[in-house]
Amino acid sequence: MGVFVTGVRPRWSDMDAFGHINHANTVTLLEEARIELLFTEAARHGVKELAEGMVVARLVVDYLAPIVFTGEEIVVEMSVRELRSAAFTLDYVVRGGRETGSPVVTKAETLMAPYNLTTARPRRLTDAERDFLAGWRAGGNGA
User: Fold this and answer.
1) Which domains are present in the chain?
2) Which of 16, 35, 64, 137 is 20 to 30 A from residue 26's alpha carbon, by CA?
């Protein structure tokens, strides 16, 4: 498996003057999808540390086509491309609808770093975090 798939629903207020989802709001939709993987799905597998402190160290977004507001969910597919001791890269493919084969409208990547909120410093991934993330490597077996 290796790909985590979730739906996110753009809001009416996410549109710009041209009727498309605004670029900044697209990044927010990526964040909502990322929370589903790193917080919700991870906790479901007993890995709660990811929700205790995580920061985006780098963000790259390629807009391939406009996301048009329809009131329906769009699909975000995520996989882990690079996994290091204190960081990992998430890749995103955003599809403009829920139907199988919906067109890809956005591709993105985030470099994520675990962060200790108490000490206000980066930290290393725990073994449990690494194992969970490794399950979502592209071409790997989903956790």
Assistant:
1) 4-134 (3.10.129.10)
2) 137
